[in-house]
Structures are given as C-alpha cells and as structure tokens.
Amino acid sequence: MALGSCSPGERGQGLYIQRFFGECTSDYGTATDVAKAEGECGIITTLINAFERAHPEARVSQNVVAWPGYSQLTAQMAARQPPDLVTMHSGVIPDYAGKGLLEPVEPYLAAAGLSPGIFTPAARQGVTWKGRMYGLPWDTHGGLWHINLGLFRKAGLVGADGNPILPRSPEELLSQGRQFRERTGKPYLIQSLVGDPAGAARILYTYMMTQGAPVFSDPKHIRLDTPEGRRVAELFRDVTREGIGTSNMDTPAAIAAFMNGEGGVYPTGTWMIGQFETEEKTRGRPLFQSYSVQPFPQLYGRNLMFVSGHAWVVPKRARTPAERQAIADYFRFMAARNGDWARTGHLPSVQAVIDGRQFLSLPHRRDIAVVARIGRALPDGVLRQNAIEGLVGEEMAAAITGQKPIAKALSDADRRVNEFLDEVQ
C-alpha cells in the first residue's frame, strides 16, 4: 500500500484513502491480523491493510494526515483533487456537506447491502445533514466518568455489588464530593480546565440537554445564558470553589493525576479507556484492579449525553463505476469489522455490535453501551461546531473557576458564538 500524498496525475487510479489516527507503519505496515493490533493507529492501519489484501482490484493508496487534517482536505478540494474516502468528525460534516462538497452515502450503502437502520441512533444522527447521510458512521465518542474505585471504597462510595455509587442530583454531587474529600483528603473531580475547552463544553451541553433546554434556539443562534445553563455553571462553580474539584490542571496534568491516584473521578473521553485499562492491569499502580468507567451521571430529569463521532466521508468528484464499487466494498468491509474498532474505547456505530457478546465481553463496555442510545449531537444545521466548542469551553471554564461571574461568562459565550456564526458563509 502506498503511503503519502497522491499527485494530480495519480488521481483516479485507485482508491485513495486519507485519514488521521496516527502513522505506525514501522509496527503495522504489512499487518493484516487485526486481532493482534492495538490502539487507534494499529487497528485502523491493519484494517486497511486487510481490505487491500481482500480487494487488490481497489489499488489502495493512503495518506496519513496530522490531526485533524481539514486544512489539507480543504486545499485538495479547492484544487479539485480530493481523496475518495476521508476520516471526519461528525461535528465537521455540516461544514462540508453544507457547501456541496460531500456525496450523500445512501447509494454506497445500498450497493454494499447496508441499511441505514443497522446503525445506532447516535451514530446515524452524527452523519445526517438535512435528512441525508453524509458518511459511513464509524463510532460514537464523548465524555465519561473514569473512576478510581480504590478511593471510592475509602470514601464509602462503593455499593455491595462493587460498583461506584454515583450522584443522582446536583445536591448529591456536592454531598458525595464533600464526603469523598473528607475521607480521602483528595479532590472528588479531577478537572482539566486549562487549555481543554472541549471538556468544559461537554459538561455544559450535556447538563443543559438533560434539563430539556435546547443549546441552540436555531442553527445560527446559541442560547446558554438561560436558567438551565446558569444552573449547570453554578453547580460546577460550587464544586471548584469548595475544593471538591481541581481548577488549575491542563489535560496532561489531569491524566497524570488520575493515574497516580490523586483524585476520584476524571471526566474525559472514551479514547482514554485503553490507557487506563493498562493501568488497571499493572500491579503496583494506583488503578490496579481499581478502575471503573461510567456514563456521565444523571443529575437532572433526562438521561442524555452530548456525543460526537468519527465517520468515513466521500468527497464529491466524478468517479467511474469501478471506483464507486470500491467505495461500496470498503463500506461493507469496515461495517463488518466495526467491532474491532471498539477496542479503542470508542463505541461501535453498528447496533448489532453494541448488542453483541464480543463487545459486551470487553472490559467495562457493558457499563457504557447505553451511551449509543442516550447520546445526542448538536442540531445538524449548526456549522463550525469545533470552533464553537472552543469558544463555549473557554467561557464555561472561566465561569467554573471564578475568573468571570457566571452570567457574564455565559452571556459572553452567547455573544461570541452568535457573532461568529453571523460571519460564517
């Protein structure tokens, strides 16, 4: 398989795949046994190798981009030399589909013998724009509560069944957090509030959704400075002010603190499960046989979570019937192996995989499978979701840490996002 960028003269001579998830040809350059692959890079590289071996007629070439690769993709589209298949975050799909730069994938799914109904609701929503699907859903990912069970036992917050006792209301979050701090001398929540706007935005989006409050009044206008938004910000401001949660950590510091047993819960993504499972298996480490992972606890009325996902999209360009068939073959091959990707920690996009014995037998997956059902994305008409997440997260972190009054932070978030969206074409 060729690695690196394809020149204009090479376009149209095979299936050109462009992806992120890292480059690891030194370890997996010729590997085809996905059962022996580890991590995002190892698994995706091995899967693509296995596809090429099963479909030599596709003549696969591959370009591995630095994360996330969208500037390069935009330049390729401007030059009218886009790849055939591209990894894309579901929140970015509207930016490209809305400009007519992606193909709807229903014809490819039909040619592959795949019904849209095989995908989980969360995965399907993530690739849908104005009623059409613009990608093969690959996974669902979002925030989870990663938990140190050893500290939870010391705090008296583990039930008779061995599972952590999680709060079911804002009041319980504060009371359990105080109990944890008093009995362990450590913070209940390890929060990465420095340079990690995505984490703060996930909290605000999730707990506004659980109160039934729309984050956006319409695709061009966000509404965070509401009673529901202030309620969330006030809760996590109390957590931080009382020392129940940390306030001065960036992501590397928060990861290190959690792995070194310096707090009870680290709210971060599905992508950290693999690393923390390694700690769970390592004798002598604080998480040894003392790790649990759960969805965000239901603090308000509805059990929902903000999620995103990865997908395989098809940039629009003229293609021969053979090229279109190669894309359909790729979709069929990858959908059939969606369970292999689940070992990364991300949730599978195929409902039968979520429900299957192989997935549920993986460590901790039974506890988080519900996220594929309760996960919700932002409305599909919202553009520039990644940039918006950054603006929202900055202001939410300022509210949580007390750098700004809550009403000021949320109103500033509304103003900044809405002014930004007014300029988006």
UniProtKB/TrEMBL annotation:
Broad class of the protein's primary localization: periplasm
Cellular localization per UniProt: Periplasm
InterPro entries: Bact_solute-bd_prot1, SBP
Superkingdom of this protein's organism: Bacteria
SUPFAM superfamilies recorded: Periplasmic binding protein-like II
Pfam families: SBP_bac_1
Homology family: Belongs to the bacterial solute-binding protein 1 family.
Record-given protein name: Sugar ABC transporter substrate-binding protein
Organism ancestry: Bacteria, Pseudomonadati, Pseudomonadota, Alphaproteobacteria, Sphingomonadales
